[in-house]
Amino acid sequence: MEKQARKEPFLTDLLIYPTDCCNLRCRHCYYTPTYNDRPGNRREEVSYELICRAIDELLPFGLRACKLSGGEPFLREDLIGICCYVDSKGLRVIIETNGTLVKRHQADTLAQLRGNTFVSVSIDGANAETHEALRGIEGCFSKAVEGLEHLVQAGLSVQVIAAAYEGNKSELPRIMDMSASKGVNSFRVCFVNPIGRGKNLPLISLEESLDIDKQLTEHAKSIEGMQYCSSLPLALKSVTHIMESCALRSRCNITSTLAILADGTITVCGMGRYADDFRFGTLGEDKLSEVWVNHPTLQLIREGIPSQLQGVCGRCVARSACLGHCRLQNEDVTLDSFFDPYPKCVNSEKLGLFPKTRIVERSDVEAKSVA
Fold first, then answer.
1. What is d(CA 309, CA 143) in angstroms, rounded to the nearest whole number?
2. Partner of 131 for a Cys bridge, out of 141, 177, 287, 335, CB 3.0 to 4.6 A?
3. pTM for the model
4. Of 273, 274, 225, residue with least CA distance to 245
5. What is the pLDDT of residues 291-333, one digit of tens each?
6. Three-state SS at 211
7. DSSP conformation class of 283
8. Residue 20: which region, alpha, beta or left (left: phi > 0; alpha: psi -120 to 50)?
9. Do 159 and 184 contact (CB within 8 A), yes or no?
10. pLDDT tens-digit profile of 267-297?
11. DSSP of 79-109
12. Which residues make Cβ contacts (< 8 Å) with residue 348, sequence separation at least 6?
């Protein structure tokens, strides 16, 4: 009998963290980058050549997009060169930035790329006082807004992301309004989690987060063309909101994603910076395609998500779309706790806030997944 050829695992997204440095001192950042306000290419950071080689190596697996995050990616002098290389391979360029270092000529170059380049800019207040209270550097608000304007005026698809905590929750509708006034039609709220520096911030309760999310959903309807979504799990949102918002596009597809940290570490996302069990090798030392296909932890992720999710996540009808939300949810995550239910969903169930319509018996969930 002839052996059936093994199907190679499908990979859609490569996350690249080109630098571990940032020119701001954000009080909520889980990544905790080193402060540095001078653009440049540093010897300890993964090289342009290795990044390009990684992209080439992953193309045969179906790679569609490269997201560049950080740290602050615009601290890399060759960032635009990396983006041009990504685009030359027919891949989508996605950038997450604080906006303060974006120059007009850079925005114009990004707008000339052939793919549908997408840039997220962090704006956490409707005024300088609120924004800079979280971002930690005086004068950064006007620079972030200027960078945002450069990107929009160049004709790029731009999203504003606001990190929500007690100190800025009342300004979220005004941040959305300001974003719309600048020509932005996508707004996302990330409720700060107690991870990294966020442990020291006054955070918004789950109950209030749900109320704020509903209020912002309604507020977005009053702004023509505005799409709104948040970091709350899919199961806690209405079906209408999921279908009409950017919620599905903003989710983490951990089963088809790989990441490269600034030091060349091969991992699954930025949380691999802390989670030892989710570091798979080093770029330049380990063959990336071999890691993607054969590393046992990556095989476990692909085989176990969503079927092995535990607790409320395992009984949730949204699990095939949500994939358990954020699996690397804290610095202490290990393989032993990898399939545990998402804490906010556990908490919402305890408080009676988890929609009963999203819960079914495990056997029913498995039958729906198969169907």
1. 43
2. 141
3. 0.93
4. 225
5. 999 999 999 999 999 999 999 999 999 999 999 999 987 778 9
6. helix
7. B
8. alpha
9. yes
10. 999 999 889 999 999 999 999 999 999 999 9
11. HHHHHHHHHHTTPEEEEEE-STT--HHHHHH
12. 206, 210, 236, 354
